[in-house]
């Protein structure tokens, strides 16, 4: 199990208002 999970982080970002900034 790696401490850094980009997949989970990305999913959280997508579900967050931050995703609007990334677009």
Automatic annotation (TrEMBL):
The lineage of its organism: Bacteria, Pseudomonadati, Pseudomonadota, Gammaproteobacteria, Enterobacterales. This is DUF4186 domain-containing protein. It comes from Serratia marcescens.
